[in-house]
Structure formats: structure tokens, C-alpha cells
């Protein structure tokens, strides 16, 4: 008839987490109770795509004819919004008309004007992210001509990257 808040206590039994809620005592024979529970569970990043709860109703009466139990599986969906930011330094660049590519040179200025491209990948949350792969396609050839001479690739923040085969082919 009325609504009451349950008193629940978390415990750890046999390596599993248990929450014990007292529904009331004594109960009259044939009493029916509806319980709505809201659970807050953290650390679900590595739990897969679902979490399973085992719910059991136990009576302290002895002997208890049955300890009814039910298993509830709840899908887990991680949510995180990723944002990619990028810029070039300098933002614009014009090669002088007198400049020419010097084949076989090991001097940086003979391969063009240095342009640095910086990309930042941000997790705007709310969840954490792991195992992210960013594939960046950089056009380095235009037909048979070098468009961009890829000199180096670097990362910060504990990320790994695989190098492009066309990275610094003349070892400048």
C-alpha cells in the first residue's frame, strides 16, 4: 500500500559482491511485495556487452519450502564521444616559383618548406575509451610526383603508431 525505502547492505561472499536487503519482518501469510531497485555499478569497461544479476528471495522461516531465484541480464553500452582536432603550422604556405625539387639531396630545404600537421584526439566522455585506432591518410604522391614529403611521425600520451612505408624515403 505505502512505499518504503529498503535498508540494503553490500557484502562480499565467496568472491562475489552481494547486496542484502531486508524486506520486513514479520510478514503475513500470502503477502505480496513489489520491489523496484536501482543499482549503480562502476568499472564496467571490461565486462563485455552484458552484466548478469542473480536475484534470490530468502526466508528466515525454517524450513523454507523454496528460495525462489531469478537471473536478470542487462545489456551494457559504453558511451563516449570522440573529437578529432587538427591544424597545420604554418596554416598556409606558398612555394616560390623559383624552387625546384632536388632529386637525391639529403638537405631538408631541397625537399620543400616544412609544414607540421598536428592532430589531437579528445574523449569528451562520459565513458573511458581504450583500443582506439586512428587511421590518417596523407596524400604524399600526385601521380608520379611527390606532393608531400613525409618526414616524421610522432605521438604523445602513451599512444603507439605504425609508420607509413613512404616515411622519409631519402633519409633526410
UniProtKB/TrEMBL annotation:
Topology relative to the membrane: Single-pass type I membrane protein
Subcellular locations according to the entry = Membrane
Keyword set, alphabetical order:
Glycoprotein, Integrin, Membrane
Could you state a single Gene Ontology molecular function term? integrin binding
User: Which is one Gene Ontology cellular component term of this protein?
Assistant: integrin complex
**Any one biological process term the GO annotation gives:** cell-cell adhesion
The UniProt record lists the keyword Nucleotide-binding: no
Identify one Pfam family in the record. Integrin_A_Ig_2
This protein's superkingdom? Eukaryota
Q: Which InterPro entries match?
A: Integrin_alpha_Ig-like_2, Integrin_alpha_Ig-like_3, Integrin_dom_sf
Tell me where in this chain the Integrin alpha second immunoglobulin-like domain is found. Answer: 3-76
- Occurrences of domain Integrin alpha third immunoglobulin-like (ranges): 83-171
UniProt keyword annotation of Cytoplasm present: no
Q: Which PANTHER family match?
A: INTEGRIN ALPHA (PTHR23220), INTEGRIN ALPHA-IIB (PTHR23220:SF73)
Please give the name of this protein: ITA2B protein
Task: Specify the species.
Answer: Prunella fulvescens (Brown accentor)
Recite the lineage of the species: Eukaryota, Metazoa, Chordata, Craniata, Vertebrata
Amino acid at each position: 500500500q505505502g512505499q518504503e525505502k529498503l535498508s540494503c547492505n553490500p557484502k562480499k561472499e565467496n568472491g562475489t559482491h552481494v547486496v542484502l536487503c531486508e524486506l520486513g519482518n514479520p510478514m503475513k501469510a500470502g503477502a505480496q511485495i513489489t520491489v523496484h531497485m536501482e543499482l549503480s555499478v562502476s568499472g564496467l569497461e571490461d565486462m563485455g556487452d552484458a552484466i548478469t544479476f542473480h536475484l534470490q528471495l530468502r526466508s528466515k522461516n525454517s524450513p523454507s519450502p523454496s528460495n525462489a531465484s531469478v537471473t536478470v541480464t542487462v545489456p551494457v553500452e559504453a558511451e563516449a564521444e570522440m573529437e578529432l582536432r587538427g591544424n597545420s603550422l604554418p596554416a598556409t604556405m606558398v612555394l616560390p616559383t623559383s624552387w625546384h625539387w632536388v632529386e637525391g639531396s639529403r638537405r631538408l630545404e631541397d625537399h620543400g618548406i616544412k609544414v607540421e600537421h598536428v592532430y589531437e584526439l579528445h574523449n569528451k566522455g562520459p565513458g573511458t575509451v581504450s583500443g582506439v585506432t586512428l587511421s590518417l591518410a596523407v596524400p604524399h604522391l600526385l601521380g608520379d610526383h611527390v606532393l608531400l614529403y613525409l618526414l616524421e611521425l610522432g605521438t604523445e600520451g602513451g599512444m603507439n603508431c605504425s609508420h607509413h612505408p613512404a616515411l622519409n624515403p631519402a633519409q633526410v
